[in-house]
Amino acid sequence: MRFSLLMLLVAAMTASPLHQASAEQVKLDVRLVHPVMKSGEKQTNHLRIALTGFELKSAEERPPVNVCLVLDHSGSMSGQKLTRAKEAAEAAIDRLSNDDIVSVVLYDSNVTVLVPATKATDRESIKQKIRGIKAGSSTALFAGVSKGAAEVRKFLADEQVNRVILLSDGLANVGPQSPQELEGLGRSLMKEAISVSTLGLGSGYNEDLMVALASVGGGNHAFIEDADSLVSVFNQEFDGLLSVVANEFEIVVKLDESVRPVRMIGSEGDIEGQTIRIPLAQLYANQERYFIVETEVSPGTEDSTRDLAEVTVQYRNLQTETKEKLTSSIQVRFSDEEKIVEEAKDMEVYAYCSLQITTELNREATALRDAGQVKEAQSLLNRNATSLNKLYFECEAKGVTSVLPELKLAEVSNEMQAEAIVDRSKWNSTRKSMRQLQNAVQNQQTYSVDVPSLSPSQSSAPRR
C-alpha cells in the first residue's frame, strides 16, 4: 500500500520583496491551533509556519545544479548492488543539462575523485567512467562526503542548487563514524549552502548516522531495501534537485513578551529569548514545508486581542536570482466561553501538529525497542495508531481533507510497526523503515513512502 506525502498549496500572506520581480513568489502561511484561547489562564498554543514553493512552468526555468555523487564501492557493494548503483548514476547523469555541474567521488578505505567538478557537457564520457567502477575494501564514509563537498565547493554559487548525494550500503569503519560526527559535518555544510542527501542500501548501513546527516544537512534520506529500486530512488532525488525554486532562507520568528517559546516540534530552531531562527536549505516547486513552534501564552482578559508573533522570511528566488522578503503577523483573541474557544480551533493546523508529535513518540518507541522493552514500544505504537485513527475521522467529519492521506499513512505505519517489532529477525529492516518514515514526516520529504502490503485484516475498512 503506497501513500505519497501530501504537498499542499496554502494561501499567501503579506509579501514584500526586497527586489520587485515579475515571477511568482514563495507563499507564507502563519496559523495557530487556537486562534481563540480561554481567558484568565496560562496555556500552551502551537504556531505553524508554512512555506510553499511556486510552480516551475518548464524545465528551462529551473536553476542550474552543482551536484556530487558520492558512491560507496567497498567490498560489500560487489555484484548486483554495484551494478544497479552504476545504472542509477548513469540515469542521473542523463537528466543533467550542459549548464549543470557534476562530480563523482568514490570511496572504500580510500577516497578517489573519479570525475572532478565539471560542466555536464560530455555526459557520455562521464557515464563511461562510471561504468568502469569496481568494488574495493572498507568504508571511509566521512571522508567520502567531505571530498564530495570539496568538489561542490569548487563552483559554489548562490544562484544554483548545491548538493552532495551519498549512496552507501555499509557501516562507516574508517575515520569518523558516529552519528554525532556526521551530524556536525552536515550542519557545517548547510551553513555553506551545500545540502546532503543520503541513500542507504540494504541492511548493513547505520540508519541513525545516515538520517542525522540528511536531516541537518537539508537533504533527503531513503532506505532502499532492494538494489533494483536504485534507479527509481535516484530519479525521485533528482526530481527534487531539478525543481528547487528558492534557497538561502532566513526565517525569523519574534514572539510577544507575553509568549514563552517552549520548543520546536519535529525540526531544529535556534531559540534566544523571544526570537527563533529556523534553518531551511531550499524549497521545491509546489512543495509545502512547515515548522511547528510550541509556546506558552500568559493569561489574557475576556474579549481582548494580543499580538502573538511576527514572522519574517528572506530567501533567494532562483528563477529571478533576486532576494525577496515575506512578512506575516498573528494575533490571539481571548474568550470566557469554552464553546467559542473550541469552535475556533484550527483542525488542519492541529492535525499537522499531531503528526509531528506522534512522530516524536514513534522515535521514542524505536528507542524502547532498542533497549529490549518490546511490550512498552508496542503499546506506544498502538496508542499512536489509535489517536491518529480518531483524529482522521474527526478531520473527515469536519471537512478537513487535506491532511487525511498523511494521517492514514501514519496510522497504518504505527499499526504495522507494532506487529513487526516483535520479530527479532526483522528488527534491523523494520528499524530502518521506521527511521526513514520519521525523517520523511519531520522534514516533509517529497519522496513517496512505500508501506508493505497489508494483511486482509488490516486492509479492511478503517476503525471507528
UniProtKB/TrEMBL annotation:
PROSITE patterns: VWFA
InterPro entries in UniProt: CLCR (IPR051266), VWF_A (IPR002035), vWFA_dom_sf (IPR036465)
Keyword Endoplasmic reticulum: no
SUPFAM superfamilies in the cross-refs: vWA-like (SSF53300)
Membrane-crossing segments per the record: none
UniProt region (Disordered), positions on chain: 441-464
Secretion signal, residue range per the UniProt entry: 1-23
Keyword Transport: no
Every VWFA domain range: 66-245
Record's keyword terms, sorted: Signal
UniProt cross-references to PANTHER family, sorted A to Z: CALCIUM-ACTIVATED CHLORIDE CHANNEL REGULATOR (PTHR10579), ZINC FINGER (C3HC4-TYPE RING FINGER) FAMILY PROTEIN (PTHR10579:SF43)
Protein name: Membrane protein
Organism annotation: Rhodopirellula islandica
